[in-house]
Amino acid sequence: MSRRFHYGPWLAIAAVVAAGALLWKFYPRQAPADVVVPEPEPVAMVEQAPPVQHPIDEVPVLPEEAPAEPLPALADSDGAALAVLAELLGEDVTAFLRGEFLIQRLVATIDNLPRSRMAPPAYAGKPLAGGLVVGTSDGRHWLDEANFARYEVPVRLLEAVDARALVSAYVRFYPLFQQAYRELGVHDRQFNDRLVEVVDHLLAAPEPAGPIELLPAEGKPRWEFADPRMEASSIGHKLMWRIGPDHAARVKARLRELRALLAGQAPAG
To answer: Is the dihedral of CA 154, 202, 55, 17 positive or negative?
Structure first.
Protein backbone atom coordinates (compact mmCIF):
# COMPACT_ATOMS: atom_id res chain seq x y z
CA MET A 1 0.00 0.00 0.00
CA SER A 2 1.42 3.40 -0.91
CA ARG A 3 2.06 5.97 1.74
CA ARG A 4 0.04 9.20 1.50
CA PHE A 5 -0.63 12.27 3.55
CA HIS A 6 -3.77 11.86 5.61
CA TYR A 7 -5.39 15.03 4.28
CA GLY A 8 -5.68 13.70 0.71
CA PRO A 9 -5.14 15.41 -2.66
CA TRP A 10 -5.67 19.09 -3.20
CA LEU A 11 -9.06 20.51 -3.43
CA ALA A 12 -10.89 17.95 -2.00
CA ILE A 13 -13.54 18.06 2.05
CA ALA A 14 -16.68 18.11 5.04
CA ALA A 15 -15.77 18.54 8.67
CA VAL A 16 -18.50 18.31 11.36
CA VAL A 17 -18.48 21.47 13.48
CA ALA A 18 -19.58 20.80 17.05
CA ALA A 19 -20.88 23.48 19.35
CA GLY A 20 -21.20 23.09 23.10
CA ALA A 21 -23.36 24.77 25.69
CA LEU A 22 -22.73 25.23 29.42
CA LEU A 23 -25.62 23.98 31.56
CA TRP A 24 -26.15 25.71 34.87
CA LYS A 25 -28.42 24.64 37.71
CA PHE A 26 -29.75 27.30 40.02
CA TYR A 27 -30.61 26.37 43.60
CA PRO A 28 -32.51 29.32 45.18
CA ARG A 29 -31.88 29.94 48.87
CA GLN A 30 -34.76 29.50 51.21
CA ALA A 31 -36.45 32.90 51.75
CA PRO A 32 -38.23 34.12 54.92
CA ALA A 33 -41.95 33.38 54.94
CA ASP A 34 -42.94 37.05 54.66
CA VAL A 35 -40.72 37.69 51.63
CA VAL A 36 -42.07 37.08 48.15
CA VAL A 37 -39.44 36.06 45.62
CA PRO A 38 -40.68 37.03 42.14
CA GLU A 39 -40.16 34.70 39.22
CA PRO A 40 -37.54 36.13 36.85
CA GLU A 41 -38.98 37.36 33.59
CA PRO A 42 -37.62 35.61 30.51
CA VAL A 43 -35.07 37.62 28.59
CA ALA A 44 -35.53 37.60 24.86
CA MET A 45 -32.29 36.66 23.15
CA VAL A 46 -31.99 38.05 19.65
CA GLU A 47 -29.14 36.65 17.62
CA GLN A 48 -27.90 39.06 15.02
CA ALA A 49 -26.19 37.83 11.91
CA PRO A 50 -22.70 39.24 11.42
CA PRO A 51 -22.54 42.11 8.93
CA VAL A 52 -21.80 41.18 5.34
CA GLN A 53 -18.20 42.05 4.55
CA HIS A 54 -18.17 41.48 0.79
CA PRO A 55 -21.66 41.79 -0.75
CA ILE A 56 -22.02 39.61 -3.80
CA ASP A 57 -23.83 42.36 -5.70
CA GLU A 58 -20.69 44.52 -5.47
CA VAL A 59 -18.48 41.93 -7.17
CA PRO A 60 -17.55 43.24 -10.65
CA VAL A 61 -18.76 40.98 -13.45
CA LEU A 62 -18.53 40.93 -17.21
CA PRO A 63 -21.55 42.26 -19.10
CA GLU A 64 -23.80 39.44 -20.28
CA GLU A 65 -23.97 39.05 -24.04
CA ALA A 66 -27.33 37.27 -23.82
CA PRO A 67 -29.97 36.86 -21.14
CA ALA A 68 -28.84 34.23 -18.68
CA GLU A 69 -30.80 31.02 -18.53
CA PRO A 70 -32.60 30.32 -15.26
CA LEU A 71 -30.45 28.51 -12.76
CA PRO A 72 -31.22 24.84 -12.23
CA ALA A 73 -32.09 23.50 -8.82
CA LEU A 74 -29.04 22.75 -6.71
CA ALA A 75 -29.76 19.03 -6.90
CA ASP A 76 -29.75 19.23 -10.70
CA SER A 77 -26.87 21.68 -11.15
CA ASP A 78 -23.98 19.31 -11.94
CA GLY A 79 -24.39 19.40 -15.71
CA ALA A 80 -24.65 23.18 -15.92
CA ALA A 81 -21.72 23.76 -13.55
CA LEU A 82 -19.47 21.30 -15.38
CA ALA A 83 -20.37 22.84 -18.74
CA VAL A 84 -19.47 26.34 -17.57
CA LEU A 85 -16.14 25.20 -16.11
CA ALA A 86 -15.29 23.27 -19.27
CA GLU A 87 -16.00 26.36 -21.35
CA LEU A 88 -13.89 28.60 -19.10
CA LEU A 89 -10.95 26.20 -18.89
CA GLY A 90 -11.18 24.76 -22.36
CA GLU A 91 -10.89 21.29 -20.89
CA ASP A 92 -13.02 18.53 -19.42
CA VAL A 93 -12.72 19.23 -15.72
CA THR A 94 -13.94 15.79 -14.71
CA ALA A 95 -10.31 14.72 -14.97
CA PHE A 96 -9.73 16.78 -11.82
CA LEU A 97 -13.13 17.28 -10.19
CA ARG A 98 -15.85 14.91 -9.13
CA GLY A 99 -18.89 15.36 -11.33
CA GLU A 100 -21.57 14.55 -8.75
CA PHE A 101 -22.75 17.14 -6.23
CA LEU A 102 -20.07 19.45 -7.62
CA ILE A 103 -21.22 22.76 -6.12
CA GLN A 104 -21.97 21.13 -2.77
CA ARG A 105 -18.50 19.55 -2.71
CA LEU A 106 -16.79 22.77 -3.80
CA VAL A 107 -18.48 24.66 -0.97
CA ALA A 108 -17.58 21.98 1.57
CA THR A 109 -14.00 21.80 0.31
CA ILE A 110 -13.50 25.56 0.46
CA ASP A 111 -15.10 25.81 3.89
CA ASN A 112 -12.77 23.14 5.29
CA LEU A 113 -9.45 24.32 3.87
CA PRO A 114 -8.61 26.36 7.01
CA ARG A 115 -9.31 23.30 9.18
CA SER A 116 -7.03 20.40 10.04
CA ARG A 117 -9.14 17.64 8.48
CA MET A 118 -12.25 16.95 6.46
CA ALA A 119 -14.39 13.95 5.59
CA PRO A 120 -13.27 12.25 2.34
CA PRO A 121 -16.79 12.15 0.81
CA ALA A 122 -16.79 15.96 0.74
CA TYR A 123 -13.65 16.25 -1.41
CA ALA A 124 -14.34 18.07 -4.66
CA GLY A 125 -11.11 16.96 -6.31
CA LYS A 126 -10.06 13.60 -7.67
CA PRO A 127 -6.73 12.06 -6.71
CA LEU A 128 -3.95 13.07 -9.06
CA ALA A 129 -2.17 10.41 -11.03
CA GLY A 130 0.82 8.87 -9.33
CA GLY A 131 1.72 8.55 -5.69
CA LEU A 132 3.54 10.81 -3.29
CA VAL A 133 7.23 10.99 -4.17
CA VAL A 134 9.43 10.69 -1.08
CA GLY A 135 13.22 10.89 -1.09
CA THR A 136 15.48 9.24 1.48
CA SER A 137 18.88 10.48 2.59
CA ASP A 138 20.96 9.44 5.62
CA GLY A 139 18.02 7.55 7.04
CA ARG A 140 15.69 10.57 6.87
CA HIS A 141 12.75 11.09 4.53
CA TRP A 142 11.98 14.22 2.52
CA LEU A 143 9.25 15.49 0.24
CA ASP A 144 10.95 14.98 -3.12
CA GLU A 145 10.87 17.84 -5.62
CA ALA A 146 9.77 15.32 -8.25
CA ASN A 147 6.40 15.31 -6.50
CA PHE A 148 5.75 18.93 -7.50
CA ALA A 149 5.41 18.08 -11.20
CA ARG A 150 2.11 16.29 -10.52
CA TYR A 151 0.49 19.67 -9.88
CA GLU A 152 1.68 21.49 -12.99
CA VAL A 153 -1.45 20.93 -15.08
CA PRO A 154 -4.02 22.19 -12.53
CA VAL A 155 -1.79 25.15 -11.65
CA ARG A 156 -1.40 26.04 -15.30
CA LEU A 157 -5.18 25.84 -15.81
CA LEU A 158 -5.70 28.18 -12.86
CA GLU A 159 -3.27 30.66 -14.39
CA ALA A 160 -4.82 30.42 -17.86
CA VAL A 161 -8.47 30.95 -16.95
CA ASP A 162 -9.82 34.48 -17.33
CA ALA A 163 -10.24 35.71 -13.75
CA ARG A 164 -13.17 38.04 -14.47
CA ALA A 165 -14.97 35.38 -16.49
CA LEU A 166 -14.50 32.85 -13.69
CA VAL A 167 -15.76 35.28 -11.05
CA SER A 168 -18.69 36.28 -13.29
CA ALA A 169 -19.73 32.64 -13.57
CA TYR A 170 -19.43 32.29 -9.81
CA VAL A 171 -21.69 35.31 -9.28
CA ARG A 172 -24.28 33.88 -11.67
CA PHE A 173 -24.32 30.60 -9.79
CA TYR A 174 -24.02 32.27 -6.39
CA PRO A 175 -27.55 31.46 -5.17
CA LEU A 176 -26.65 27.77 -5.46
CA PHE A 177 -23.35 28.28 -3.63
CA GLN A 178 -25.19 30.09 -0.85
CA GLN A 179 -27.81 27.34 -0.65
CA ALA A 180 -25.09 24.69 -0.41
CA TYR A 181 -23.44 26.74 2.35
CA ARG A 182 -26.71 26.84 4.29
CA GLU A 183 -27.03 23.09 3.88
CA LEU A 184 -23.71 22.75 5.71
CA GLY A 185 -25.51 24.28 8.68
CA VAL A 186 -24.29 27.86 8.28
CA HIS A 187 -27.38 30.07 8.25
CA ASP A 188 -26.05 33.44 9.38
CA ARG A 189 -23.20 34.13 6.94
CA GLN A 190 -22.70 34.77 3.27
CA PHE A 191 -20.57 32.22 1.44
CA ASN A 192 -18.70 34.98 -0.40
CA ASP A 193 -17.42 36.29 2.93
CA ARG A 194 -16.22 32.80 3.78
CA LEU A 195 -14.58 32.42 0.37
CA VAL A 196 -12.58 35.65 0.78
CA GLU A 197 -11.64 34.53 4.29
CA VAL A 198 -10.36 31.19 2.98
CA VAL A 199 -8.40 32.88 0.18
CA ASP A 200 -6.73 35.08 2.81
CA HIS A 201 -5.88 31.95 4.78
CA LEU A 202 -4.20 30.35 1.75
CA LEU A 203 -2.28 33.54 1.02
CA ALA A 204 -0.98 33.49 4.59
CA ALA A 205 0.56 30.02 4.20
CA PRO A 206 4.20 30.25 5.40
CA GLU A 207 6.98 29.41 2.98
CA PRO A 208 9.12 26.48 4.17
CA ALA A 209 12.74 27.47 4.80
CA GLY A 210 14.11 24.39 3.06
CA PRO A 211 13.37 20.77 2.21
CA ILE A 212 10.36 19.34 4.04
CA GLU A 213 11.12 16.34 6.22
CA LEU A 214 8.55 13.56 6.50
CA LEU A 215 7.95 10.77 8.96
CA PRO A 216 5.95 7.55 8.50
CA ALA A 217 2.75 7.84 10.52
CA GLU A 218 2.80 5.41 13.42
CA GLY A 219 0.60 2.42 12.65
CA LYS A 220 -0.81 3.98 9.48
CA PRO A 221 0.20 3.70 5.81
CA ARG A 222 0.84 7.40 5.24
CA TRP A 223 3.41 10.14 5.72
CA GLU A 224 3.32 13.03 8.15
CA PHE A 225 5.33 16.22 8.45
CA ALA A 226 8.23 15.78 10.83
CA ASP A 227 7.72 19.32 12.15
CA PRO A 228 4.82 19.08 14.66
CA ARG A 229 3.73 22.62 13.84
CA MET A 230 3.43 21.78 10.15
CA GLU A 231 1.62 18.54 10.90
CA ALA A 232 -0.90 20.44 13.04
CA SER A 233 -1.52 23.02 10.31
CA SER A 234 -4.59 23.35 8.13
CA ILE A 235 -5.43 21.36 5.04
CA GLY A 236 -4.96 24.50 2.95
CA HIS A 237 -1.49 25.26 4.24
CA LYS A 238 -0.40 21.64 3.81
CA LEU A 239 -1.64 21.80 0.25
CA MET A 240 0.44 24.89 -0.48
CA TRP A 241 3.54 23.11 0.86
CA ARG A 242 2.85 19.92 -1.00
CA ILE A 243 2.56 21.53 -4.45
CA GLY A 244 6.04 23.08 -4.11
CA PRO A 245 7.29 26.66 -3.65
CA ASP A 246 7.15 27.62 -7.34
CA HIS A 247 3.59 26.40 -7.76
CA ALA A 248 2.59 27.98 -4.45
CA ALA A 249 3.90 31.36 -5.60
CA ARG A 250 2.01 31.09 -8.88
CA VAL A 251 -1.20 30.02 -7.13
CA LYS A 252 -0.92 32.89 -4.65
CA ALA A 253 -0.47 35.40 -7.48
CA ARG A 254 -3.72 34.25 -9.07
CA LEU A 255 -5.51 34.10 -5.72
CA ARG A 256 -4.63 37.75 -5.08
CA GLU A 257 -6.24 38.70 -8.37
CA LEU A 258 -9.35 36.65 -7.64
CA ARG A 259 -9.52 37.98 -4.10
CA ALA A 260 -9.62 41.58 -5.30
CA LEU A 261 -12.59 40.76 -7.54
CA LEU A 262 -14.42 38.75 -4.88
CA ALA A 263 -13.96 41.63 -2.43
CA GLY A 264 -15.63 44.03 -4.87
CA GLN A 265 -12.55 45.75 -6.26
CA ALA A 266 -12.89 46.40 -9.96
CA PRO A 267 -9.70 45.79 -11.98
CA ALA A 268 -7.79 48.89 -13.06
CA GLY A 269 -8.10 50.08 -16.63
So the answer is: positive
**What H or E segment, with its residue span, contains residue 127?**
none
Nearest to 220 by CA among 3, 71, 68: 3
DSSP SS3 for 18 = coil
pLDDT in tens, the chain (269 residues): 344 444 333 333 333 323 332 222 333 333 333 433 345 555 545 567 789 999 999 999 999 877 778 999 999 999 999 999 999 999 888 888 999 999 999 999 999 999 999 888 888 998 888 888 899 988 999 999 999 999 999 999 999 999 999 999 999 999 999 999 999 999 999 999 999 999 999 999 999 989 999 999 988 888 999 999 999 999 999 999 999 999 999 999 999 999 999 999 866 55
Q: Are strands 140-143 and 134-137 parallel, antiparallel or unpaired?
A: antiparallel
SS3 state of residue 78: helix
